[in-house]
Design a protein that fits this description.
- The protein has five helices and seven strands, in the order ααβαββαββββα.
- By secondary structure, it is α+β, with helices and mostly antiparallel strands.
């Protein structure tokens, strides 16, 4: 009897793995109702104006010569490690961005559409702490990151793993 236990466990494991592969991802939710307005048009305009001012007057530091060269070649003003952007240039590039696009997965069944009126379910981004029964609340480790990514990949209720699942 004990000689057949490893074989049974192996068969059970194969069956579980085969069953897990057949799980379906949840469909993407398409919203057909108006979005909640959390800021007035005047508030949004103030945010936009200040953002444009920061990008035009203070710029953004880039510590990569190739990136700075590319930005300069596409119309940004570059001084040292700082790239400055005027509003007309930025809005020209914003207009070129699609309202939605498909994020391609290795398995096409897991592709997701980003943007438009669709939702993508993913884990929360970047909590600084984790907690477990043995060690309690603590700062996350690389092993914690790996484990959370594995959990996200295995969940049939998430469309993708997100990004930084713990800091």
């Amino acid at each position: 009897m004990s000689g057949s236990q490893p074989r049974e466990r192996s068969r059970d494991r194969r069956a579980r793995r085969a069953g897990a592969g057949g799980q379906l991802r949840p469909p993407q939710i398409t919203y057909n109702i108006p979005r909640a307005e959390v800021a007035t048009p005047a508030d949004l305009q103030r945010i936009h104006d200040m953002s444009m001012r920061v990008l035009n007057e203070l710029g953004i530091a880039f510590y990569d010569a190739e990136v700075l060269e590319i930005l300069a070649g596409h119309g940004a003003r570059v001084e040292g490690d700082i790239a400055f952007f005027d509003e007309a240039l930025l809005m020209e590039y914003v207009q070129k961005a699609p309202a939605e696009f498909t994020q391609q997965a290795r398995n096409p069944a897991n592709n997701v559409i980003l943007g438009g009126n669709r939702s993508v379910f993913a884990p929360v981004y970047g909590p600084p702490f984790v907690q477990d029964k043995e060690r309690g609340r603590r700062q996350a480790t690389l092993e914690d990151f790996r484990n959370f990514v594995k959990l996200a990949y295995m969940s049939p209720y998430l469309h993708h793993s997100g990004g930084t699942v713990v800091e």
